[in-house]
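Encode chain A's predicted structure.
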Amino acid sequence: MVNIKNKKSFPCRNNREHIDGFPVYRSYKCYDVIEVSEGCRIPLHDYVMQKKIGREIKQSEVVHHIDLNKRNNNLDNLFLYNRSKHRKEHENIKRLLEKNLFSKLFEKGVIYFDYKEGIYKMKDIEIKIKEKTNKPCL
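Encoded structure for chain A:
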């Protein structure tokens, strides 16, 4: 079992789910949290990442939801950032969100998450334009 540090307990309601025998709740910030011992609740995304990496999440690290859905705690939707890089990436996302583009472009696969570099990227899109010819109409 992964050693899990004691994190702040969140006020939440029981949604009657269990993961690895631990009850799952919803926090006031809409994150899923699990109660690993009496009064000790941690965000589910932290728990999932700790199991993957086999250690505790450091104070300098943050688990990021790639699709920005706080309830999607699938391992392929989580990425471990250092805090400063996480903040910068959210600033980039915020710029796109202000234009209401990010979710639409992410859904359509135009924007994707590069797991190797830990950043969002846009796919190279090749736009083909038919060349106009100056041939006379016959």
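The mean pLDDT is 78.
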